[in-house]
Every structure is written in C-alpha cells, then in structure tokens.
Amino acid sequence: VSFNINDDLSVSYGEVESLKKNTGSVKTLMEAESLQIAYTMGGASIKIADTDVTNATYSTAASADKDGMTLALSLAF
Question: What is the pTM assigned to this prediction?
Fold first, then answer.
C-alpha cells in the first residue's frame, strides 16, 4: 500500500508471509513487514525504510528474527 501525501512526500507499507514445509508435516511461517517514507525536493531525496522479519531462516529460534533500518540520501546535479 502506498500513499502520496503531496508531490514531495510518500508513505508506503508492505507485508509478506511465506510458509515452508520442513521435514515431515511441520510447516514454518516467515513474516516480513516494512514501512517506508520518501521525501523529494528538487534533485534531492531522502528515503527511510524500517523492516522487521520473523523467522527469517524458517526457524523458530529467536536468532532467526531480523530487524533493519535503511536510510538513503540521493542528490542529482
């Protein structure tokens, strides 16, 4: 889902679920959510993305959960 607040600012959200069948009849669910914000003014833009992944390696261990934040600055001349 994406929403342009005005000509310069946009906000978007995405989520995905993936189910993997392991040995036997055991199934493991991986879930990911991401929230992004982008602001552009002239030739400059700044983008921020915050992402959370549960069971990134299709494992139920706590170490399989991942979080990340991305910050990008772009300049055009």
Answer: 0.77
